[in-house]
Design goal:
The protein is α+β, with helices and mostly antiparallel strands and 291 residues long. It contains four helices and 14 strands. Strands 3, 4, 5, 6, 7, 8, 9, 10, 11, 12, 13 and 14 form a twelve-stranded antiparallel beta sheet that branches. Helix 1 packs across helix 3 (33-54), helix 2 (19-31) runs parallel beside helix 4 and helix 3 runs antiparallel to helix 4 (70-96).
């Protein structure tokens, strides 16, 4: 520890530093544990000397007055003690904390990485038809279809599970639930392989369409309205499920299956001529979730 640091701590305790120097000292205490320890030692000594000074009888020699009055010094001392406590707790937490796990998927811990997320940029999307409003945090429109290519076919063998989280909001005009369709599709080499959202038909509910000439998969009870829904797909088994919320937690409200090993190279969001879709967020993650 440098001699200058010892002198600085003494000046702080004596109240002889400027406002700027005191602010710089506070910042060093947040960043340097050695300064915290040094201040603690000096603060204890200062406290002991102060008690002895207060016990002096009238007429005894006294210490010269400082730049700051007693209330100001007590306030400063209390503030610095509080900083010492906060910094000490922070250091302890950093030294003992375990690495944060990845998001829960299907009730289990898995390591997932975002492969597609906001903000939205019009240049990232190819319009098939329609002209939705696209801003950084929202895509909104009626009767439109827009596509976006993935960087590489997903999911990969190393990260065989993908989770697509779609947050649907109330559209500016039109309805999400109609006799038409509104939602998100996954494509492979130009072929639609998977769709979730409000499927084509009279049922007013979120549903799953695994194509393959299989009827639309409806939930046991309707899942209605704009909300956040996560689709989970495992290429090892071909299993697909829908879950309410940002992650595939808890029981699925729809389950289906597509051929195992399928990968996707493009996604589409949109709505039919009788429907509307407003997307407030879209995140696709890939990882090593359990089969």
């Amino acid at each position: 520890m440098k001699r200058a640091d010892h002198e600085l701590v003494q000046e702080v305790l004596d109240g002889s530093v400027s406002t700027e120097a005191f602010a710089a000292f506070q910042q060093r205490m947040r960043e340097e544990p050695e300064i915290v320890k040094l201040y603690g030692e000096y603060a204890m000594l200062h406290h002991t000397l102060s008690e002895e000074f207060e016990d002096h009888a009238p007429g005894e020699p006294t210490m010269p007055s400082d730049k700051w009055n007693a209330p100001a010094r007590l306030f400063l001392l209390a503030a610095l003690v509080l900083i010492v406590v906060i910094v000490a707790v922070s250091i302890h937490r950093k030294s003992t904390a375990s690495p944060a796990p990845g998001p829960l998927v299907g009730g289990n811990i898995g390591q997932f990485t975002a492969i597609l997320e906001g903000p939205f940029q019009r240049a990232d999307w190819r319009a098939d038809y329609g002209n939705p409003e696209i801003s950084l945090d929202r895509i909104d429109g009626e009767n439109y279809s827009i596509f976006r290519r993935l960087v590489q076919p997903e999911p990969t063998a190393a990260s065989p599970v993908i989770c697509a989280t779609l947050r649907v909001e109330s559209p500016a005009s039109g309805q999400f639930h109609t006799d038409g369709w509104a939602g998100m599709s996954f494509y492979s080499q130009g072929i639609e392989r998977l769709f979730f959202g409000d499927c084509y038909g009279p049922e007013r509910t979120w549903a799953l369409d695994v194509k393959q000439r299989i009827p639309i998969i409806l939930p046991g009870k309707p899942v209605i309205g704009p909300k956040t829904v996560t689709l989970r797909y495992d290429r090892r088994t071909g299993e697909v499920s829908l879950h309410e919320g940002k992650f595939a937690l808890g029981p699925a409200f729809c389950r289906g299956k597509i051929p195992a090993g399928l990968t996707f190279d493009e996604i589409r969001i949109g709505a039919s001529s009788s429907a509307a879709l407003a997307v407030g967020s879209l995140v696709i993650r890939a990882g090593d979730g359990p089969p």
